[in-house]
Amino acid sequence: MTFLIAGPLDPAAELASFEDRIGDAGAIVTFTGRVRAASGSGNVTSLFLQSHPILTAQGIQNAIDTAHARWPLAASLVRHRIGELGVHDPIAFVATAARHRRAAFLAADFLMDYLKTEAVFWKKEVTATGTAWVEPKDTDYADKARWNNNTETNECTE
């Protein structure tokens, strides 16, 4: 499975393809992350992302496997851009499908928390005044910590 996209990412096309393979799932949850125009380092003109293709892909696959083990998912999809992106370009797309909504919502949230904190990416913002490396925020790590032994985020009723 290809998780890393070097060219444009088209969330609408990804969703259409995803919907073709979900079977009888009653719920689809999607998330599209976009490059923000402003950040702590100023007004962003572009964002550059690098990855370690093997480690990054293995980590994403492990996160997907974990999501499928925790929740009754019919399908999932993760796509993440690498290379140079402009402001408002889609940077990430996550889709999950399940029989019921709660599993799909929780799994999508879990996968995004993984991408924000654990996935092997190096992000550099480019602004009019220079460049700055982007690191996960404390709030990103706090979001991810919710998944550690928290039965509230594991439960799904059929």
Model description:
This protein has 158 residues and is of the alpha+beta class. 33% of the residues lie in helices and 35% in strands. The protein has helices at 11-19, 53-70, 101-117, 138-145; strands spanning 4-5, 27-34, 38-39, 42-51, 73-81, 83-86, 90-98, 121-127, 130-134. The strands form 2 sheets. Strands 3, 4, 6, 8 and 9 form a 5-stranded antiparallel β-sheet that branches. Strand 3 and strand 4 form a beta hairpin. Helix 2 (53-70) packs antiparallel against helix 3 (101-117) and helix 3 (101-117) crosses helix 4. The protein is globular and about 50 Å long. The two termini are 29 Å apart.
Main sheet: strands, sense, barrel: 5 strands, antiparallel
* Shape estimate: globular
Helix-residue proportion = 25-40%
Q: Roughly what fraction of the amino acids lie in strands?
A: 35-45%
Q: Span from first to last CA? A: 29 Å
Number of DSSP-assigned strands: 9
Mean pLDDT: 92
Total number of helical segments? 4
Classify the secondary structure makeup into a structural class.
alpha+beta
Considering the chains and any ligands shown, give keywords for the structure.
158 residues, five-stranded antiparallel sheet, four-stranded mixed sheet
Topology:
Layout: E1 4-5, H1 11-19, E2 27-34, E3 38-39, E4 42-51, H2 53-70, E5 73-81, E6 83-86, E7 90-98, H3 101-117, E8 121-127, E9 130-134, H4 138-145
Helix pairs in contact: 2-3, 3-4
